[in-house]
Amino acid sequence: MTTPLRRAVEQASWASLLPPHRADGDDQPIGAPLYLDALDLAPGRWLTIIADAADRTYPVPLVAAGSGLRRARAGDGAAEALAGLLAAGSREVGAFSLTGWHAEPVTGEAPIDVDQTNESVVLGGRGVVKWTFQATEGPHPAPAILELLERAGFTGTPRPWGLVQWRPSRTAAPRLIASVTAYLPGAVDGWTWAVEDLRRACTEGPDAVRAPGRRLGELVARFHLALLPTHRPADLADVARWQGEALADLRRALEVTTGAEHAQLARHRDVIAARAVPPSELAGTPMLLGHGDLHVGQVLRAGESYAVIDFDGNPVVPPAQRTSAQPPALDVAGMAQSIRHAGLVLRKHHPELDPGRVERMTGVFVEAFLAAYRATLAGARRPDLLEEALVRPFRLRQVCREFTYAATHLPRWAYVPTGALPELVKGAR
């Protein structure tokens, strides 16, 4: 910690510290920047921890610039320097914890110019450094999941190279502030490839979604099998928590929605409550550390390769819960429901397509995913990992959360839960 660095940080503007795409968006810092800590990356380059007046912490890569400093950009060498530190192995540096799993010699930095919550820099076309935008309260689920996947030899995610965590105090849980993974050239986001595959299926036939559905099912099953060391049976408290959360999600959706969306939810309130609440006899169902926020957008596709990403857990649940075991059915339900949502996105943007055809192809996609997931578990002699009785309740919970998300963050998304709910309350799979 150096006095000049502290002084420079606290004299800087938030606009010079935040990523350009976050400097004028929502969730802006309050008050003046407050310097908390810094990890030396290389001469004139630091990874700093900066707080705002609301005690929110922001990891900020900085570079010396003239007599001051600014946020490091691609080409400034901060990302290269971080990868170099992690290549030296795991260790503690003050309040920073460095974990290194894999290293490759890389030079050159390039930005990723897409909309993203955090900020990523491509290293030599082979690795990606992700600077976390906000270091939320720990513990963070990603370090434990990536460690397990690395030990299991799981290849269905971009290979983790390493990560950096920071503790605000000796007794506090660590917060994830940066990570490095392998880069997948030409990778396409799931909300793009899934919608496109469904469009092709509507004109070319169901094989266009059967193959990706199978690959998704195999990927998610192998992901869960790699996390088997965290397995435990659910107890009565777990079941009671699922039941309480289901009713809370419904209440929250009813509170925040208005107009036609609220009327639709209110009309089906009793059916949703009955079907979204898991039965009490599910104590004993298998639980393990899972993804927690799995949907098609969390799966990249590059050529014929599929990779699950973003092990941040569900952002709307408490930190301790994000690192707790959960039924694999939660991830399965999230993925199945998101495929349904991809079909609704397709209908919205391609109204010329026959809605019945879109619905049938979406069903083929979902069934291919579920069948491959079950078959992969059966092949590993662990068909018990999927508790079928939880899939529909978790899908309904997800739709309630989509209503809340649309009402509180993205009103134009309301057509998705509005279109998804009828299928689930009718009892169709």
TrEMBL record:
Q: Which reaction does it catalyse?
A: D-glucosamine + ATP = D-glucosamine 6-phosphate + ADP + H(+)
Describe how the cofactor binds. Answer: Binds 2 Mg(2+) ions per subunit.
One MF annotation (Gene Ontology) recorded for this entry: ATP binding
Q: Where is this motif: Substrate specificity determinant motif?
A: 398-413
Tell me the domain of life.
Answer: Bacteria
Gene Ontology terms: biological process:
carbohydrate metabolic process
**Residue sites binding ATP per the record:** K130, A182, Y183, L184, D189
Q: Where does Mg(2+) 1 bind?
A: Q298, D310
What are the names of the required cofactors? Mg(2+)
Write down the top EC class of this protein. Answer: transferase
Q: Which UniProt keywords apply?
A: ATP-binding, Carbohydrate metabolism, Kinase, Magnesium, Metal-binding, Nucleotide-binding, Transferase
Quick one: which residues bind Mg(2+) 2?
A: D310, D312
EC number in record: 2.7.1.8
Main function = Catalyzes the ATP-dependent phosphorylation of D-glucosamine (GlcN) to D-glucosamine 6-phosphate. May be involved in the phosphorylation of acquired extracellular GlcN derived from the hydrolysis of chitosan, i.e., in the incorporation of exogenous GlcN into the bacterial GlcNAc metabolism.
Could you tell me which HAMAP family the record lists for this protein?
GlcN_kinase
Assembly information from the UniProt record: Monomer.
Which family does the UniProt entry place this protein in?
Answer: Belongs to the actinobacterial glucosamine kinase family.
Stated name of the protein: Glucosamine kinase
Organism from which the protein derives? Georgenia thermotolerans
Supply the source organism's classification: Bacteria, Bacillati, Actinomycetota, Actinomycetes, Micrococcales
